[in-house]
Write a structure and sequence with these properties.
This protein has 366 residues and is an alpha/beta fold. It contains 14 helices and 17 strands. Helix 2 packs across helix 4, helix 3 crosses helix 4 and helix 7 packs parallel to helix 9.
């Protein structure tokens, strides 16, 4: 369960509150992280860091007492804080002769198949050169309004772990572990050492927002564990301020909470299920049953089409599955409910007679 002796590729996510202290940047903490990561590199492991902290550091530079809520101010803080953040990583790792590389992401980079593959190749190259990639959301241009934001770096770290086939995701935060109830409200709350399945009760009990300059609360960490699980990647959540926490986790010490994977999807299936859908296709019960029996989705099973999308986009199927569609929304609206043999007559030759093939359909719930 906690035997990481064969673990080769590790993603480490570090939260804003863990990286900083009340007076601002905690340079000593960066040095401790660099020392622990260097030990992993010397043992033949590969490490990717997903970091928060840019907005917090920018806010600190501007002497703001609270996390800015205005989008433009947050973007400005990110622009100010990101080079400060990377400067600290660079200085800390250079003490050990290790080079770091900055990678800034938006959600659309991971949702687009071409840019996702470009990102994957870039990270693989950095790792092959023994460089530690340091990833962060590009907060200066990512906004929920334009659909480019991840929402938090907990989810981003799990997506990265999934996309690069990491064996372990270490989530360093300001909480010790997952508890059976909120420890702030219940004195008898007990830490949970291992989670084999994220039940509805666990998801329901997870709550609360992040700290002053942070966005991720327990809910986002549960969602990250779900994403990592789909990749067959174990996730350990622990207090990032604990002594030698990274080394102790990798050594197998029972610290924090470990989330164990329930299934392992192929790389393409993980890209599909973790991509933001461009629209929704409503299908009837018969079509859904056929999909669960590993059959193609046919136009005859489509009852409604929502949103505007192109052939090759990822779409949501009744909220139960995601698929790469062979037909755009305009074409699909024309074909909805019609037999496959009518496609050529309606759209002309050269069009596929299915909406999605089994290999391009991934169920969310199992």
């Amino acid at each position: 369960m906690r035997d990481f002796s064969k673990t080769r590729r590790i993603v480490i996510k570090i939260g804003t509150h863990t990286l900083t202290k009340d007076t601002g940047i905690d340079a000593a903490y960066f040095r401790r992280v660099a020392s622990q990561v260097t030990s992993l590199l010397q043992a033949g492991r590969q490490v990717v860091i997903v970091t928060s902290g840019a907005i917090g550091m920018g806010a600190g530079q501007l002497a703001l007492s609270t996390r800015p809520k205005d989008m433009k101010m947050r973007q400005a803080c990110a622009a100010i804080g990101q080079p400060l953040l990377m400067q600290e990583y660079r200085k800390a790792f250079l003490r050990h002769g290790v080079t770091v590389g900055q990678v800034l992401l938006t959600a659309e980079v991971l949702s687009n198949r071409k840019t996702y593959l470009n990102l994957r190749n870039a990270i693989e190259t950095l790792l092959s050169l023994n460089i530690v990639p340091v990833l962060n959301e590009n907060d200066s241009i990512s906004t929920a309004e334009i659909g480019t934001a991840f929402g938090d770096n907990d989810r981003l770290s799990a997506l990265v772990a999934s996309k690069i086939d990491a064996d372990l995701l270490i989530m360093l935060t300001d909480i010790d572990a997952l508890y059976d109830k909120n420890p702030n409200d219940h004195a008898d709350a007990r830490p949970i050492s291992s989670v084999f399945e994220i039940t509805e009760e666990i998801a329901r009990n997870a709550g609360g927002s992040g700290s002053r300059h942070a966005t991720g609360g327990m809910k986002t960490k549960i969602e990250a564990a779900r994403i990592a699980s789909q990749a067959g990647c174990r996730m350990v959540m622990a207090n990032g301020r604990a002594r030698d926490v990274i080394g102790r986790i990798v050594a197998g010490e029972e610290i924090g909470t470990i989330f164990l994977p329930k299934r392992k999807l192929s790389n393409r299936a993980r890209w599909i299920i973790n991509s933001r859908p461009a629209g929704t296709v409503r299908i009837d019960d018969g079509a859904m049953k056929a999909l669960r029996n590993h059959k193609s989705l046919l136009p005859s099973g489509v009852v409604a089409v929502e949103g505007n999308f192109q052939a090759g986009d990822v779409v949501l199927l009744n909220g139960a599955a995601k698929a790469v569609t062979s037909l755009g929304s305009t074409q699909l609206k024309t074909l909805a409910g019609k037999h496959s043999t009518e496609i050529k007559a309606l759209l002309g030759p050269g069009h596929r007679d299915v909406v999605a093939i089994p290999e391009d359909i991934v169920f969310i719930d199992n």
